[in-house]
Design brief:
There is one protein chain. With 88 residues, the chain is an all-alpha fold. It has a single domain (4-17, 24-85), classed as Non-ribosomal Peptide Synthetase Peptidyl Carrier Protein, Chain A, CATH 1.10.1200.10. Helices cover 55% and strands 0% of the residues. The protein has four helices and no strands. The relative contact order is 0.20. The mean pLDDT is 90.
Length: 88
């Protein structure tokens, strides 16, 4: 499976629409302040990442969503949630 960071980066690039693959992408760049994403785009991004990784959106809490300021935050939170819902 593709890494969570790669999934998040790919989803961000698709959402931004103007970044070429060879353009640098900073996982620690702030999605609103640095990349200019709107609230709706953030919801779309998180929803798409959940779909791509197989994580039920309901596995994320309000607190999780509030902490998602960077693509790296999304990757870390989704990774943690995937581990929590993964059957033992």
């Amino acid at each position: 499976m593709e890494s969570i960071e790669s999934v998040v980066e790919t989803c961000c690039r698709e959402l931004l629409g103007v970044m070429r693959r060879e353009d640098p992408f900073d996982l620690q760049g702030r999605l609103v302040e640095d990349y200019g994403l709107s609230s709706l785009q953030l919801v779309t991004l998180v929803t798409t990442v959940c779909e791509e990784t197989g994580l039920p959106l309901t596995a994320l809490t309000e607190r999780d969503i509030a902490r998602m300021k960077t693509a790296g935050d999304i990757a870390a939170i989704v990774q943690g949630a995937l581990q929590a819902v993964k059957p033992s």
